[in-house]
């Protein structure tokens, strides 16, 4: 199933029919993609999106980054709860959004290290950042 993990309905169907999933995304809220793929993402070293932090942070920037990570997880648990309820009822077993997305086979990420902060990723995450760029004349 070729799907976007922003709305995990495709992943719910893929799990129900035991089909492999290919995710196509730019980024997903709260770094759920990173946690679902079990990539390392320590909040004291990897800057959060929209934090305006660079890869070299001071102690106060690291604390701010850590607090942003905690607030993200709280906010995202409220946003993801309807999908968790839907998945749990449909699949007849308790599921979190991270568990649901962790069954993805391949993650096609529209990111490029030139524009985004480089961070550790798993081997099934493939960067295809150049697809949105125009041809050079």
From TrEMBL:
Source organism of this protein record:
Dryobates pubescens
Q: Which residues cross the membrane?
A: none
Annotated membrane topology is: Single-pass membrane protein
Q: Which PANTHER family match?
A: EG:EG0003.4 PROTEIN-RELATED, UDP GLUCURONOSYLTRANSFERASE FAMILY 1 MEMBER A1
* Keyword presence, Membrane: yes
Q: Mind listing the UniProt keywords for this protein, alphabetically?
A: Glycosyltransferase, Membrane, Transferase, Transmembrane, Transmembrane helix
Give the location in the cell.
Membrane
Traced from the root, the source organism's taxonomic lineage reads: Eukaryota, Metazoa, Chordata, Craniata, Vertebrata
Instruction: Spell out the protein name for this chain.
Output: UDP-glucuronosyltransferase 1-1
